[in-house]
Specification:
The complex is a heterodimer. By secondary structure, chain A is of the alpha/beta class. In chain A, about 40% of the residues lie in helices and about 10% in strands. Chain A has a five-stranded parallel β-sheet, sandwiched between helices. By secondary structure, chain B is mainly alpha-helical. Classes of the chains: A alpha/beta, B mainly alpha.
Chain lengths: ~375, ~220
C-alpha cells in the first residue's frame, strides 16, 4: 500500500489537480510556513512567509508527487484517546483528512478494525516490513512502577511495547501531554510511576506534541513535515516543534489588550466576563504555556478555551496538573501554610522574643544591683 | 529534572519555608524589643498621646512627602530623599497594586482589591530600579555614605534589587523562557523574605512601631498642671 506515491493515492480517491495544489499550500500553512505574522513572531527565520507558488510550496508539491506514503504505528498507553479524537475529528476534505491521506496507518488500537491477536500480529509484520522507515506515534504515559504492571497489552507491558517499536522507528512523536511529559497519570501522587516517552527512549529524538489534547494541526503538521522533508522540525528545549510552540498563549491571546489595560473579569458571569476582559484573575495560566491555541484554535479555527471564556490551564507544559489550582492566579504560591501553622510560627517567634527580652532585663537588673 | 521542577520548588516548599521564617523572625524581633517594657508615665500629660501617634503618621506619610523642601533632610540631601522616596513608592505600587502580587495575597488571606493597569505598574517598577541604581552609585562615591556602608548595606541592596530586576525581566520576557524568568524571580523573592528578619529590611514592619512610639512621646507635650 505505501509503495504508491501520495499524489497517486489522492488521485485514486478523486482528488483533483486543483485540490492537490491547494493541499500543498495548506500543508505549508500547517507546518507554520505561511502563517502571516511569522516574521514578527520571532520564529526561525528560515520559515519566512512564502507566497502562493513559492519555493517552499513547490518543494512540498514535488515531495507529494514523488514521496511514498509513510507507514505509521500508533501506540496507546495510559491515555484517554482524546488526542486521537482530536486528530480524527476531520470533516472531508479538511486539512486533517488530507494529511491522513499521506500516511498509511498500520497499527492503531482505536482506529483499527481488527483486534486481539490479529492486530498484534499485523503490528509485528508492519514493524518488520518497514523497519527503520515508520513513524512511531505514542499517545498516553508509560507506567514504570511494579515493573510496568499497570498497563499490559497482549500480555506485554507498555515499556516493552514502546522499546520494541522505538527500536525500528524512523521518528518518534509523543502526542499529548501524557505521552510527552506524563500528563494526568503523572499528577501527584503519581500512583503508577507514569513517565513520558522521552524519559524512557533516550537514544533517539522524541518530538513532543504536548497539550491536553494536543492541537490536531500540530500533530498532523509535524507528521506531514517528516513525511515531506524526511526530517524533524526544529524543536525547543522541551522537544516541541518551535513552529507550533514558539510563543506563549498569552503572547497571541485576543484578550491581551485587556490584560495590559488592567481590565479583568472577576467572576464567570460579571460585567467583565461579558465584555471579554482578561481572565488572569480567574486563574488564567496563559503567560506560561507555549502553545498555538490562540492562533490555530480548535474545531477548524472556530474558537479556543480563552475565547470561549475559560482560563487557560497551561496544558502544554510539564506537570501542569500540579501547577496550582486551575482557578487560582498563576503567580500564587503552590503551598500555603494553614492559619495554625502561621500562628505557631508567629507564636514561637514571639515567645522566644519575650524570653530573650526577659533574660536581657534580668541581666541588666543584676548588673545594676551589682554596681550598687 | 527540568526548569519546571525548580520552579515548583521555588513556588512551593521554598516559598512556604521563607514565608514562615519571615513571620517567625519578625515576631521574634518585634517581641524581643517590645517586651523590654516602656518607662512608666509618672505624671499626667498636657497633650493626648493618641493624637501624637495620629499626627506623626499624618505628617510622615501624607504631609512631608509632598512638601519636602521645608525639611532639612530634603534640602541637605535631595538625591537621597527623592531617590529613596520614589523607590519606596515604586515598591508600594508594584507589590500592592500589581495584579500578580495582589493575587498572591488573595490566595494567602482571601481578600482581593482593584489593581493598576500594567503600563503604570511597569513604569513604577522601572522608576524603582533606576532609583536603586542611583542610590547605589551615590552610596559608593559619596564620602560619608561610603564610610557608613558595610557589607550589610550592600547585601540588603542586592537582596531587594534582585527580585525587582527579575520581576521586570519577567514582565518583559527578557533573558530566557518564562519559566526560567519566573523561577529566578521566585527564588530571589524567597531569599529576600528570609533576609528580611535577619537585617534591617525589617524596618518595613518596625517603622510603624517606632513611629507610633515616637508619636506617643511627642504627643505628651510636657506635664499638665
Ligand atoms: S486571558 Fe490569559 S492568556 Fe489571555 S491575556 Fe489574559 S492572562 Fe493572558
Ligand atoms: S488554552 Fe491553555 S489549557 Fe487550553 S488547550 Fe490551550 S494551552 Fe491547553
Amino acid at each position: 500500500m505505501s509503495e504508491e506515491t501520495i499524489k497517486k493515492g489522492l488521485a485514486d480517491k478523486g482528488v483533483s489537480r486543483r485540490d492537490f495544489l491547494k493541499l500543498g499550500g495548506l500543508l505549508a500553512a500547517a507546518m507554520g510556513m505561511q502563517l502571516p505574522p511569522l516574521e514578527q513572531s520571532g520564529l526561525p527565520a528560515a520559515l519566512g512567509t512564502p507566497a502562493r507558488g513559492s519555493q517552499i510550496e513547490q518543494n512540498i508539491l514535488h515531495a507529494l508527487e514523488t514521496k511514498q506514503r509513510l507507514p505509521v504505528i500508533w501506540l496507546e498507553f495510559q491515555d484517554c484517546t482524546g488526542c486521537t479524537e482530536a486528530v480524527s475529528r476531520s470533516v472531508s476534505p479538511s486539512l486533517e483528512n488530507l494529511v491522513l491521506n499521506t500516511l498509511t496507518i498500520e497499527y492503531h488500537e482505536t482506529l483499527s478494525a481488527a483486534a486481539g491477536y490479529q492486530i498484534e500480529q499485523a503490528k509485528q509484520d508492519a514493524m518488520k516490513k518497514y523497519a527503520g522507515q515508520y513513524i512511531l506515534v505514542v499517545e498516553g504515559s508509560i507506567p514504570t512502577d511494579n515493573d510496568g504492571a499497570y498497563c499490559v497489552i497482549g500480555g506485554r507491558t507498555a515499556i516493552d511495547h514502546l522499546k520494541e517499536a522505538a527500536a525500528g522507528a524512523a521518528a518518534i512523536i509523543a502526542v499529548g501531554n501524557c505521552a510527552a511529559y506524563g500528563g494526568l497519570p503523572k499528577a501527584k501522587p503519581n500512583p503508577t510511576g507514569a513517565k513520558g516517552v522521552w524519559e524512557l527512549i533516550t537514544d533517539k529524538a522524541v518530538v513532543n506534541i504536548s497539550g491536553c489534547p494536543a492541537i490536531p494541526e500540530a500533530t498532523t503538521g509535524t507528521i506531514a513535515h517528516f513525511a515531506i522533508f524526511g526530517t524533524l522540525p526544529e524543536l525547543d528545549n522541551l522537544n516541541r516543534p518551535k513552529t507550533f510552540y514558539g510563543k506563549t498563549v498569552h503572547d497571541r491571546c485576543l484578550r491581551r489588550p485587556f490584560y495590559e489595560a488592567g481590565k479583568f473579569a472577576l467572576s464567570f458571569d460579571d460585567e467583565g466576563a461579558r465584555e471579554g476582559y482578561c481572565l488572569y484573575k480567574l486563574g488564567c495560566k496563559g503567560p506560561t504555556p507555549y502553545n498555538a491555541c490562540a492562533t490555530i484554535k480548535w474545531d477548524q479555527g472556530l474558537s479556543f478555551p480563552i475565547q470561549s471564556g475559560h482560563p487557560c490551564l497551561g496544558c502544554s507544559e510539564p506537570n501542569f496538573w500540579d501547577g496550582g489550582g486551575f482557578y487560582q492566579g498563576q503567580s500564587t504560591p503552590l503551598d500555603k501554610p494553614t492559619v495554625a501553622v502561621v500562628g505557631a510560627a508567629v507564636g514561637v517567634g514571639a515567645a522566644l522574643g519575650i524570653g530573650t527580652a526577659l533574660v536581657n532585663q534580668s541581666k541588666k537588673k543584676a548588673k545594676k544591683g551589682g554596681s550598687k | 529534572m527540568n526548569q519546571q521542577t525548580v520552579l515548583e520548588f521555588a513556588r512551593g516548599p521554598f516559598f512556604y519555608f521563607a514565608l514562615l521564617f519571615m513571620l517567625f523572625g519578625l515576631a521574634y524581633r518585634l517581641f524581643s524589643v517590645i517586651s523590654l517594657g516602656w518607662s512608666k508615665n509618672r505624671v499626667p500629660n498636657k497633650g493626648s498621646q493618641a493624637k501624637g501617634v495620629f499626627m506623626t503618621f499624618l505628617k510622615g506619610v501624607l504631609i512631608w512627602p509632598f512638601i519636602p523642601w521645608v525639611k532639612n533632610t530634603f534640602t541637605r540631601n535631595p538625591l537621597i530623599y527623592i531617590g529613596g522616596g520614589l523607590f519606596h513608592l515604586s515598591l508600594f505600587v508594584v507589590i500592592i497594586l500589581g495584579t500578580p502580587h495582589m493575587l498572591v495575597t488573595k490566595s494567602l488571606v482571601g481578600v482581593q482589591w482593584a489593581t493598576l493597569p500594567l503600563p503604570i505598574v511597569d513604569f513604577m517598577a522601572a522608576t524603582g530600579i533606576i532609583a536603586m541604581l542611583i542610590l547605589l552609585v551615590n552610596r559608593m562615591i559619596h564620602p560619608v555614605m561610603k564610610l557608613i556602608s558595610g557589607p550589610a548595606e550592600y547585601l540588603a541592596w542586592l537582596f531587594v534589587f534582585l527580585p525587582m530586576i527579575t520581576g521586570y525581566m519577567m514582565t518583559h520576557h527578557i533573558g530566557g523562557s518564562y519559566e526560567s524568568l519566573f523561577t529566578r524571580h521566585m527564588i530571589t523573592v524567597d531569599v529576600l523574605m528570609i533576609w528580611i528578619p535577619l537585617s534591617r529590611l525589617s524596618h518595613f514592619v518596625f517603622y510603624f512601631f517606632s513611629r507610633a512610639i515616637h508619636g506617643q512621646e511627642f504627643g505628651k507635650r510636657g506635664v499638665a498642671v
